[in-house]
Amino acid sequence: MATDTANLLFSKRVSYAANGVVSLANEQTILTSDGNKLVVTSHRVRYVEYSRGTSQFTSMMLDAVVSCRITHTSRPWLLALALLALLFAITRPQNDDGVPQIVGYVLAALFVAAYFGTRRQVLEIASAAARINVLVRGMTLEKTTEIVTAIEDARARSLVRTS
């Protein structure tokens, strides 16, 4: 009987938002990522990821968010290697059988592809107890910064409501 009462009370307090997230009282969705992996509401930040047989679910209240960070990594040395391979291909004598030139061009293309394939931009949202790391693909730094600004604005509003 106690379990039935708890379920009844729980069902009265929460409702499901359009994106499938259980809404708290007076909670509004501020932004969602493609596929609802990252959801920012007026009360919290939630992240769900499924990959290679593992899953991760993290939810943190906005008043617990202590920092947001955007990290962009690239490997420019791969472009330097591509340039060296291209110079090797260009400077090969024309009277060769052409194999060294082709190898140089192929290596240059592979190094350029590796450079673009290893570039990463990660949005990290941290609290004292947890971190949400979102691999951001196809977004400019300005667009990712807009997400951070939305989180900061929502956090500021939640702090004003509670004081």
Which SSEs are present, and which pair or pack?
Elements: H1 2-13, E1 15-16, E2 22-23, E3 29-32, E4 38-41, E5 44-51, E6 54-61, E7 65-73, H2 76-91, H3 99-118, E8 120-127, E9 131-135, H4 141-162
Antiparallel strand pairs: 1-2, 3-4, 4-5, 5-6, 7-8, 8-9
- Largest sheet report: 4 strands, antiparallel
| CATH homologous superfamily (4th level) name of the largest domain | Pleckstrin-homology domain (PH domain)/Phosphotyrosine-binding domain (PTB)
Task: Provide mean pLDDT, rounded.
Answer: 79
| Residue runs with pLDDT of under 50 for 5 or more positions | 1-19
Helical fraction equals 40-55%
CATH architectural group of the largest domain? Roll
Derived from helix and strand composition plus strand pairing, the structural class reads: alpha+beta
* Name of the top-level CATH class of the largest domain: Mainly Beta
Count the beta strands. 9
Count of helical stretches: 4
In spatial order, strands of the major sheet run 3-4-5-6
User: What percentage of amino acids are in beta strands?
Assistant: 25-35%
What form results from the Cα inertia axes? Answer: elongated
